[in-house]
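Predict the assembly for these two chains.
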Amino acid sequence: MTHVRYMDRIRDYYIAQGYEKPYRWANFEDVPFTPLKKPLSESKITLFSTSDVSVKRPEGEELPPEETTVGDVYSVDWDTPLDRLYSRQESFDRYATNLDDLNSYLPLTRLQEYVESGRIGAITDQFHNVNRGYSQKLMLQTAAPAALEVCQQDEVDVAILTPV
Amino acid sequence: MSLVARHLEENGIPTVIIGAARDIVEHCGVPRFVFTDFPLGSPCGEPFDVAMQQRIVGVALDLLETADAPRITVQMPLVWTKGEAWKDTVFTVEQPFLSGEQIKNWEARKQRYRDQKA
């Protein structure tokens, strides 16, 4: 079976719900490209997702503002035990799958394994979350530069991105 | 996320996206894309299927090494174990993508953004 045409499906879905103005998806003619500068076995890799993963907190304790501000990027220690992490993301196909296994959308352990096997050189101390927003302007002017900044701070060679 | 990948790439950092919404990612245009034809939420493999997750991440690493031009999509030759009925029902009126509390949270998120802009 062919893949889902989400742009059409989502447009029809929201029109049926009374939203009049269809979302205009980002579209570019030109696509930038940077080749690898060195072998992966010598490269430091980081990971970004939109899974809104947080460290479990005591009940009633509020999330820090960077985890809820749309367009922000926040970071979590990569070595946080998986059972202390959870995804707050609600925009996924809850009828077909679940977010119970972080590695199915945020491959923290899988990348650690590739470091251990020598396939990749290293991973960063922290992975990152992009607080997705519907505004392309916000993503371009706030989220994207913030993501670049954390990459530059960590002297990252390669970034893997996993939109949920 | 595609916009973030493009920005990193423009600034000298190679990227690969592992995602499940092929049309959206390709419409935007990204350098390297591993497409997993799975429900939204499981781009890196079925939950708790370690071997499958290793394979998908491995293909993303391969693509980083082999791509010599942008707009390359590699489709994982995988089929969702429980079948493909989900493709007919996602984002349909019969199966609301968000409901109840989730809609409230979605609206609250939009309001937060409006407040941020103000």
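The two ends of chain B are 24 Å apart (CA to CA). Chain B touches chain A through 80 residues (CB under 8 Å).
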